[in-house]
Amino acid sequence: xxxxxxxxxxxxxxxxxxxxxxxxxxxxxxxxxxxxxxxxxxxxxxxxxxxxxxxxxxxxxxxxxxxxxxxxxxxxxxxxxxxxxxxxxxxxxxxxxxxxxxxxxxxxxxxxxxxxxxxxxxxxxxxxxxxxxxxxxxxxxxxxxxxxxxxxxxxxxxxxxxxxxxxxxxxxxxxxxxxxxxxxxxxxxxxxxxxxxxxxxxxxxxxxxxxxxxxxxxxx
Length: 220
Hints:
By secondary structure, the chain is α/β, with parallel strands linked by helices. It is 49% helix and 14% strand.
């Protein structure tokens, strides 16, 4: 059977970003300001709202226009900027009630699983270890490991390589998860615990992680 990838925040765990819309808005606003202060053209960021999209646009611009050393400097500056957000959110993260039951069923059936997340390695490992999830996953790939964040598919290819098993599905809760799955040729399973179907394209919609096993076993 093919392996299964999960997004982390908003899918397996509830972070401060899900708990507080104000936190998200603050991050978006300050991400834009920080990038501009580092020399990223303001017009490049026009029309972009989400923090991941702002950073991806900035990193692509830097790779196209700056030296390797300058690109590395820009990324390092942004990682330092993001660190307090990442760890502050990680420390307030809690498990969703359906997470363990779904993971245990998949583990019992021998499904190889990995995590792909737009948070940092430090934050992801803190969350997974603190909440007792690390042993479920044969691979964890984070934004710290790749040039750009989801929906860029590089993070999926890296997780697949680390698992050593072909990946078939990505479970997430956001448009960038669905798009990343599509970009990597995977089947997207989008979670909406509130029951509201998203307005972006996806392959499967679920209201609980407990629906995941039946989807992948039926497909397999």
